[in-house]
Amino acid sequence: MTLRQTPLTCSGHTRPVTDLHFSEVTPDGYFLISACKDGKPMLRQGDTGDWIGTFEGHKGAVWGATLNKEASKAATGAADFSAKLWDAVSGEELRSFTHKHIVKSVSFSHDSQYLLTGSNEKLLRIFDLNQPESDPISFNGHTSSIKSAVFTLDGKYIISAGDDKSVRVWEVSSQKEIKKLEFIANPSSLELSQDGKTLTISYGNFVTFYNTENWEQIKEVEVPSQLYTASYLPEKGIFVCGGEDFKMYKYDFATGSEVESFKGHFGPIHCIKFSPDGELYASGSEDGTLRLWQTTVGKTYGLWKVVDPALGDADCITNNKPET
Pairing state of beta strands 42-45 and 51-54? Predict the structure, then answer.
């Protein structure tokens, strides 16, 4: 019997969800942060979607949100021309970094010592969080807005995707561009795999994968929709993606064949990420919701409870709207 994929729906946002990010597994589990055009990024328990708190302080749409690996710090980037650093435990704003245009991307270094931002100024900046008053290191080369950017695990390089149809790799120590990957359409998402070995990029209706040791393409898969996001889980050999047609797609990495596809959202899908334990993946949509999906459908995990197959499919509890 094939069990039906039943997502957990996380309500609370009032406008499109633009970005999401998981922490690593901590002694208290793992956590999920979401960015939204309502200007109110939210923190949730990662395996259940239960609302923990909202970061209050931005005066415009929030485009990017991230957690450090320990879930002790959060960072957000917004249309109010700022990136903000937060204490993820107390919700307190620790620092605001002023930019000259919309900040679309924020990312911590693996050691949590540095914050990388990408903005519509076409600039990448690295802020030293131990010396937050000092001038950031800037990287100039993109010819259009920067959509997303991440550190490599060793912190020696940063990788950025821009609306100039390119993904670029930069050496931090020299501030030099060492690799430029060009595409026929603007990259819509950029993700470094949890082991740091694979770079996953979505553009047009393709998902393409690169080896981070030599920046050579591993493979490329065509999907029957314009894509906005993709996430790869190496240990299970699958990737998920979504975009304009409201559908979630799951693919076998080795064969490039579709495993399943299904609708759950009521708008285009803007962001997808696998959880750090690989048991679920989260999606954020134009419809203003986050949804959590099981990697292995029917497994008892988080709020998903398996029932007797004779009585019906895998069942779950739907999350309530956050308290106000």
Answer: antiparallel
